[in-house]
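Retry 2 of 3 after timeout on previous attempt. Resubmitting structure tokens to design endpoint.
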């Protein structure tokens, strides 16, 4: 059930919102139950390791946390 909490949408706006909700529900149900969940890009280790790490040297301790 969809309830309009604020405003006065036109029938066309309600139809567009309902189409988006139904499309999202159809996409969610199309994923097989045995398939692994898609990985979030934030948890991808290659995103972190894509940048070159600082090389050891006399002042390398100053670059241990902050990226350049």
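Retry 2 succeeded. Sequence:
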């Amino acid at each position: 059930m969809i309830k309009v909490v604020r405003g006065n949408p036109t029938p066309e706006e309600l139809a567009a919102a309902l189409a988006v909700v139904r499309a999202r529900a159809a996409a969610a149900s199309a994923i097989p139950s045995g398939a692994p969940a898609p990985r979030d890009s934030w948890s991808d280790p290659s995103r972190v390791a894509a940048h070159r790490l600082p090389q050891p040297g006399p002042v390398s301790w100053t670059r241990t946390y902050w990226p350049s």
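Attempt log closed. The chain has a mean pLDDT of 77.
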